[in-house]
Amino acid sequence: MNIGILGSGFGVYGYLPAVCKNLWTPIILEKNRSKIEARPELFQYKDRITYVSAEKTLIENSHSLIIATTPTYQTKFLQSNDLKNINHLYLEKPLASTLKDYFELVQFLKLQRRKFSVAYLFVYSSWYQEITTLMLTKTPIILKFNWSVKKTESTWKNDKNYGGGLLYFYGIHFLALLHNLGVSSNEIEIIENEKKIMINVTDLQNKKIHVLINYAEDSHFSINVSKKSINQIIYENQTPFGPQNKIGTEDTRISLIAKYLKDLHLTSDSNFVDIEEYIYAVMKAHQKNTVSA
């Protein structure tokens, strides 16, 4: 099966090996060839890639399509290209750089009845099942997620005006998680400033969830559960997905992406419209609260 990949940076370096691990053929633009061949960890895949010169050719020769670019590019591309031959769209978060564009794109995909998914990878993390089990118990618990992210590059990922920032680029993972855990969008409170965000859920029957995400000199992620006055760290690493990769080695996220691609390929139906409408509702409420404050 041919899988087209549109992206740059990790959009290519992460998805390329994940596609190959599923024994699919990656279709990539010729302009990415030199950068791919310069990376030692990707050398093993060089004979698996089909390069094409134009986006139109890539679309025409792909069964499914991965779009891992900037939110602005992703929005424009989806609304301006004929993708009728594409079976599944694998998209990246956030879908758009503004809430207005976010809403319009979700409605566009909904009306087009496009089969799409978004790479919220927490569901494939090693700790996810334990979290879901804890949420199903009748025992009162407090879940605390702490994520320190290293702000080292001046890219759109750190700029909220382009769809980046602590909430849109990092916090959005937790909004998808809360949707999967069955938390109502009305029960979520977001507190935000330039250095950190807090996402709180305190009105559940016997559960409380607190998320803290902040910029720091070093990356670190932990999950703490308080149950019957006992505190326990149930996960701790450099990132929610595992240790940070060293230059020239395979990123720990790639195995999760491979599972995500295969899982959604095998699923005839998905609830990503529901997830995106949920995320939009939470973001919109936060925007209103911020303006009125």
Secondary structure class reads: alpha/beta
Radius of gyration: 19 Å
Count of DSSP H/I helices:
10
Helix content: 25-40%
The shape, in one word, is globular
The structural domain count equals 2
- End-to-end separation in angstroms reads 52 Å
| CATH 2nd-level architecture of the largest domain | 2-Layer Sandwich
Biggest β-sheet strands, sense, barrel = 6 strands, parallel
Estimate the strand proportion: 15-25%
CATH topology of the largest domain: Dihydrodipicolinate Reductase, domain 2
CATH class of the largest domain: Alpha Beta
How many strand segments? 12
CATH superfamily of the largest domain: Dihydrodipicolinate Reductase, domain 2
Give the rounded overall mean pLDDT.
92
Order of helices and strands: EHHEHEHEHEHEHEHEEEEEHH
Instruction: Report the uncertain regions.
Output: none
Strand order of the largest sheet: 3-2-1-4-5-6
Task: Give the helices and strands, then pairings.
Blueprint (H helix, E strand, L loop, with lengths): L1 E6 L2 H4 L1 H7 L3 E5 L3 H5 L12 E3 L2 H6 L3 E5 L2 H10 L8 E3 L7 H14 L3 E3 L9 H9 L4 E10 L14 H16 L7 E5 L3 E6 L5 E10 L3 E8 L2 E8 L15 H14 L5 H21 L1
Parallel strand pairs: 1-2, 1-4, 2-3, 4-5, 5-6, 7-10
Antiparallel strand pairs: 7-11, 8-9, 9-10, 11-12
Helix pairs in contact: 2-9, 6-10, 8-10
The gist of it:
With 293 residues, the protein is α/β, with parallel strands linked by helices.
What does this structure look like?
- The protein has helices at 10-13, 15-21, 33-37, 55-60, 71-80, 99-112, 128-136, 165-180, 253-266, 272-292, and strands spanning 2-7, 25-29, 50-52, 64-68, 89-91, 116-118, 141-150, 188-192, 196-201, 207-216, 220-227, 230-237.
- It is an alpha/beta fold.
- It has two domains: 2-120, Rossmann fold (3-Layer(aba) Sandwich), CATH 3.40.50; 122-248, Dihydrodipicolinate Reductase, domain 2.
- It has a six-stranded parallel β-sheet. It has a six-stranded mixed β-sheet with strand order 8-9-10-7-11-12, covered by helices on one side.
- α6 (99-112) links the parallel β5 and β6 (116-118).
- The mean pLDDT is 92.
